[in-house]
Design brief:
Layout (H helix, E strand, L loop, with lengths): L5 H5 L8 E3 L11 E6 L3 H16 L3 E2 L8 E6 L4 H20 L5 E6 L5 H10 L5 E3 L7 H11 L3 E3 L7 E3 L10 E5 L1 E2 L10 H4 L4 E2 L2 H13 L4 E5 L16 H11 L3 E5 L8 H9 L6 E3 L7 H6 L6 H14 L4 E8 L6 H14 L3 E6 L17 H24 L5 E9 L6 E6 L4 E5 L8 E9 L4 E6 L2
Parallel strand pairs: 1-8, 2-3, 2-4, 4-5, 5-6, 6-7, 9-12, 12-13, 14-15, 15-16, 19-21
Antiparallel strand pairs: 10-11, 17-18, 17-20, 18-19, 20-21
The chain binds iron/sulfur cluster.
Iron/sulfur cluster binds next to helix 6.
Length: 470
């Protein structure tokens, strides 16, 4: 049993990172079904595709409901309190299934919550119906953890709290046949004071460029039309591995492979160079969509958050992207109510939002994450004031998001059609180059194609359009 150790997880010893190959020939899943539920970010979505890939490889078959499953895996997120609550809420449902429908059901926890000492101690002592816990650094070991549980009937906790390795070749069962996630860098060393990620995902470690490029060439051969390069902080790509090869170089090399659409997420303004802006602006197949988290517009709060850039730095970068990248869409993340945030500080945030007029924003009220430096800071903003600021911020954000969408009415845009529309089954839906969701009047055989669409109506969070034959 290996329990998570937050003290260990904080360390950055700069030891050499091990680059290893996945190697499992375990085949014990015949006639068994699995159900995977994913919480949190795109990194977790892609990790769930790896979990499914390993289970398929082992002989398991995917099912879409926990009631029909022999094994249920929750791939968890630790970024905010409500993510926790959702997971523990659903664990109650699984306990009921285990007590009433299938007493042999195996329940497992993966993802960022498995790296949290307090959570895993609680699971070990209180939630004994949970059969195994597998950490983020040893996901490639998942099958042998499950096998040991099945053979010994003893609950398994295998969580490693060191900087982490890079494991290539883990089987992947992708959710989409057209758009693919591709990890380029794992972990984060920024240590923003409110964030748990540097402790749950380990040190910043880049994949080798040849492994990334090989994966993308294979995806293109398989007919994929879009790849999204993933990392907690993609702009730091290569810094830990190469002297002069970074995200700008990688984007150019990926662009040369010729896949129609290339995206990347998540960015950090601090590592975002002009060279990267120039590559985005000059490459047709690098999509003009950038998610550029601001978090706060106040230099005082940015310092307390350890974001390492100022309001002025951020606006300078924003203006450069707006100027150089034609038709760019820019979205952001903002936290309100951080300890020490005064009304004046909040007005600084609104000032940046009014200057940037974002296409959209993910907005949050500060909630302390245990074991982060910000959790030790004295809370100065009441819940009531946090909600008031969140409300005022969302009003402005939605106004600009609506205006940005309204500007597209009557225009013809290119969309990658990914599925039938959730809103109207007679329609299909897809995404513009700017990552805007469009519900499209058109035949279902458009799915899996990049097509022209005339935008007929714009709402705050989506567009309506009609398919335009070439
Ligand atoms: S950059 Fe900051 S907010 Fe983003 S993952 Fe790293 S520590 Fe967290």
């Amino acid at each position: 049993m290996k329990m998570p150790d937050m003290k260990q997880a904080r360390k950055r010893t700069n030891n050499n990172i091990n680059y290893t190959k996945y190697d499992s020939n375990l085949k014990f899943g015949k006639n068994k079904k699995y159900f995977v539920r994913t919480y949190g970010c795109q990194m977790n979505e892609h990790d769930s595709e790896k979990i499914k890939g390993m289970l398929n490889d082992c002989g398991f078959i995917e099912t879409q409901s926990a009631e029909n499953a022999d094994i249920v895996i929750l791939n968890t997120c630790a970024i905010r309190e409500n993510a926790h609550d959702k997971v523990f809420g659903y664990l109650g449902v699984l306990k009921h299934i285990k007590d009433t429908i299938n007493k042999d059901l195996l329940i497992g926890i993966c993802g960022c919550m498995s790296q949290e000492e307090v959570v895993v101690n609680e699971i070990k002592n209180k939630y004994k119906y949970i059969d195994f816990v597998c950490g983020t650094h040893n996901l490639d070991n998942l099958l042998s953890i499950i096998k040991t549980k099945m053979d010994t009937k003893k609950n398994q906790i295998e969580v490693l709290s060191y900087e982490g390795d890079v494991v290539e070749g883990i089987p992947v069962s992708r959710d989409s046949k057209y758009s693919a996630w591709v990890d380029i860098i794992y972990g984060c060393d920024k240590f923003c004071t409110y964030c748990i990620v540097p402790y749950t995902r380990g040190m910043q470690r880049s994949r080798k460029k040849e492994d990334i490029l090989e994966e993308i060439k294979t995806l293109k051969e398989k007919g994929y039309l879009e790849v999204t390069l993933l990392g907690q902080n993609v702009n730091a790509y290569g810094k830990d591995l190469y002297d002069n090869y970074n995200l700008a170089n990688l984007l150019s090399d990926v662009s040369d492979i010729g896949i129609p659409r290339i995206r990347f997420v998540t960015s950090h303004p601090w590592d975002f160079t002009e060279e990267m802006v120039d590559v985005i602006a000059s490459r047709e197949n690098v999509m003009p969509y950038i998610h550029l988290p601001l978090q706060s517009g106040s230099n005082k709060i940015l310092k307390l958050m350890n974001r390492r850039y100022t309001k002025e730095d951020y606006l300078k970068l924003y203006d450069s992207i707006r100027t150089k990248v034609k038709n760019a869409s820019i979205t952001t993340d903002i936290i309100v109510g951080f300890p020490g945030e005064s009304e004046e500080d909040f007005m600084e945030t609104l000032d940046v939002v009014n200057k940037c007029k974002y296409d959209g924003a993910f907005t949050f009220a500060f909630s302390p994450r245990e074991n982060t430096p910000a959790a030790l800071m004295k809370e100065t903003v009441s819940e009531e004031d946090k909600m008031d600021r969140l409300h005022r911020l969302n009003e402005i954000v939605n106004k600009y998001s609506n205006e940005a969408n309204k500007r597209l009415e009557g225009q013809i845009v290119k969309c990658l059609v990914t599925s039938l529309s959730d809103k109207d089954k007679n329609k299909v839906c897809g995404y513009t180059e700017n990552m805007k969701l469009v519900n499209i009047e058109g035949p279902s055989d458009l799915i899996g194609n990049i097509v022209k669409v005339k935008i007929t109506d714009a709402k705050s969070f989506s567009l309506d359009g009609i398919y335009v034959k070439d």
